[in-house]
Write a structure and sequence with these properties.
Elements lengths: L11 E7 L4 E6 L8 E6 L1 E2 L14 E9 L4 E9 L1 E6 L9 E6 L3 E10 L2 E11 L7 E7 L7 E6 L3 E7 L6 E8 L7 E5 L2 E8 L5 E5 L9 E3 L6 E6 L6 E6 L3 E6 L8 E4 L6 E4 L7 E4 L5 E4 L5 E5 L6 E6 L19 H4 L6 H6 L25 E6 L4 E6 L1
Antiparallel strand pairs: 1-29, 2-3, 3-5, 4-5, 5-6, 7-8, 8-9, 9-10, 11-12, 12-13, 13-14, 15-16, 16-17, 17-18, 19-20, 20-21, 21-22, 23-24, 24-25, 25-26, 27-28, 28-29
Protein name: methylated diphthine methylhydrolase
Family: Belongs to the DPH7 family.
Catalytic activity: diphthine methyl ester-[translation elongation factor 2] + H2O = diphthine-[translation elongation factor 2] + methanol + H(+)
Length: 398
């Protein structure tokens, strides 16, 4: 398939990278000066298992790949259980960027980003089981208040959602609230962007729910049955008050007003099932979606498609916007010009050395200023998407 766009030029591919194992999640670090760094998670079901093994006993392996999108190579590779989701803290916690992964053993794995002699590296901080044995942690979200400790919401394959609080020093997670919110997998969860007590959940039972964790968990604030298949993604719009978006296997993107949850404001068709929704950090008219079997699409605020990226030949699960915008006086810039043929296909001769940890070519994104171009600046924006069976990660620009 090729990259196409509705109402504009085709997206330009900046980099193609082979994750080796199936890729299902990718997110840029939002904290300067590390916004050129990207974390990708992979999920591989072991092939040497009996055909009749119960699903909860299947062994699933994964990796976390820290990538430098300026130099287009891998900085670090960490072996884990299969990874279902990764989320960076929206701002530093305890003075350092943190990132959390949800894995197939029902755990949250927390890492901090540090500056080693060889360049940026992830260091383990904490690990906590959040689901029963045999269950998968599926999706997670951060909430960082202006004052007080950070919170995390995580959903799992039993239908439960758990809210945890992070100690001030960023090393200990305490459960604040847990509840079985759905009769089947709780595919997604998230906070109201302005209130860490309000949690949204979506499940394979077709239900979209909202909870106030200060109230009786048996009594959700709302239960909505508008979706015609499982609810797979939810995002509270942090630039537009009271706006929510949800995605579903029913191949629609829903827009909601959280003050009137009986019916959606918009129900926009998108092909393939909307697995992930990412609001642009600055532009109200750019909402990025990972649409599983239908590629990746950028919509406007009403859900109309303005651009489509169809390079992937498998299920698209991961998507995110690059947040480099020159907002800090233009100090943080990296080369985002289209890569040469070798780096565009991921054939970086330094990648193996970096994965092994020698770090000989690791940099912090300070390159040739004559060729530097800001990411997500002016009229252009840069996104990343990743797909499963073809284990392809693409960096592209619209």
């Amino acid at each position: 398939m090729s990259a196409e766009a509705g109402g504009g030029a085709a997206p330009a591919v900046l980099w193609r990278w082979d994750s080796e194992w199936p890729a299902d999640t990718a997110e840029f670090c939002p904290t300067p000066p590390y916004r050129h760094l990207l974390l990708c998670g992979t999920y591989r079901l072991r092939e040497d298992q009996p055909a009749d093994i119960p699903p909860e006993e299947c062994q699933r392996d994964g990796r976390l790949h820290l990538l430098d999108c300026g130099r287009r190579h891998e900085l670090q590779r960490l072996d884990t259980a299969a990874v279902l989701d990764v989320k960076w803290s929206p701002a530093p916690v305890g003075g350092q960027p943190l990132v959390v992964a949800a894995d197939a053993r029902g755990r949250l794995l927390m890492f901090r980003l540090t500056d080693a002699e060889t360049g940026p590296r992830l260091e383990p901080v904490a690990s906590r089981a959040v689901a029963e044995p045999g269950r998968l942690a599926l999706a997670l979200e951060w909430f960082l208040p202006a004052v007080g400790p950070a919170r995390l919401a995580v959903s799992d394959s039993s239908g439960a959602v758990t809210v945890l609080q992070l100690a001030e020093e960023g090393r200990e997670l305490t459960v604040l609230w847990t509840n079985v919110c759905h009769g089947h997998e709780a595919w997604t969860c998230g906070f109201k962007h302005s209130d860490g007590n309000v949690v949204y959940t979506g499940g394979d039972d077709l239900l979209f729910r909202g909870y106030d964790i200060r109230l009786d968990p048996a009594c959700p604030v709302f239960t909505n049955r508008s979706h015609e298949a499982g609810v797979t993604s939810v995002q509270s719009d942090y630039l537009t008050e009271h706006t929510l978006r949800t995605g579903s296997y029913d191949e629609h993107l829903y827009t909601w007003d959280d003050r009137a949850m009986r019916r959606p404001l918009e129900r926009a068709p998108l092909p393939g099932g909307v697995w992930r929704i990412k609001r642009h950090s600055r532009r109200a008219d750019h909402v990025l979606t990972a649409c599983m079997y239908g590629g990746s699409h950028v919509t406007d605020a009403a859900g109309a498609v303005v651009a489509s990226f169809l390079e992937h030949k498998s299920i698209v699960y991961g998507a995110d916007w690059c947040r480099l915008d020159g907002g800090g006086g233009g100090e943080e810039k990296v080369d985002m010009t289209p890569a040469t043929d070798s780096s565009a296909t991921g054939d970086d001769s330094n990648a193996a050395g970096d994965a092994a940890g020698d770090g000989s070519d690791v940099v912090n994104g300070d390159g040739d200023t004559e060729r530097q171009r800001e990411c997500s600046s002016g009229d252009t924006s840069v996104a990343v998407t990743c797909s499963f069976y073809d284990h392809l990660l693409c960096l592209w620009e619209i």
